Amino acid sequence: MPMEIERKFLLVGDGWKAGVVETRRLRDGLLARFGEGKVRVRHGGDRAWITVKGPRDGISRAEFEYEIPLTEADEIFALCDMPHVEKVRHIVPYGGLTWAIDIHQGALSGIEFAEVELEHPDQPIPMPPWAGEEVTHDLRYRKATLLEHNAALLRTKS
To answer: What is this structure's pTM?
Structure first.
């Protein structure tokens, strides 16, 4: 079974910028939630995917990802209820690992994370100086929580 093994950290400063080797714009839409899992559509550049993520087991979860035609992705985005997540992802190699620095825009503007995918849950991580507090298990930093909080703030302002 394909697995995602990932840890997430808040950013400290912008020292990561010097190591960027790739940058891409991504847009995610939440298509469905089931139990502790979800189905997401993602558009990035000239490619799009449907991703099914299972419930978390520590820092691991089943993840199935399938490339789909861009035209179908655009139609699927119209089916998503919550606001789309827009972000710029910067790829930064550090200590033999590939880090993804996500700078959110749109509904989550101002939210920034550093994420690293691992081969196994106990894999040691050489910590870059720009990776701050770990928020992997902090429910406040899950995208659904952030989107719900942002929607609540917008409702109180109107």
So the answer is: 0.89
| 45 backbone φψ class: left, alpha, beta (φ>0; ψ -120 to 50) | left
Q: Which helix (H) or strand (E) holds 152?
A: helix 143-157
Cα–Cα distance measured from residue 4 to residue 97, given in angstroms and rounded to the nearest whole number: 15
Question: Residues 64, 91: contact at Cβ < 8 Å?
Answer: no
Question: Token pair 């902090």 is at which residue?
Answer: 138
Tokens 């972000």 correspond to 87
Apex 125 CA angle, 122 and 131, nearest 5: 130
Q: What tens digit of pLDDT does each residue of 68-87 get?
A: 999 999 999 999 987 789 99
Superfamily of segment(s) 3-157? Hypothetical Protein Pfu-838710-001 (2.40.320.10)
Tokens of 76: 């699927």
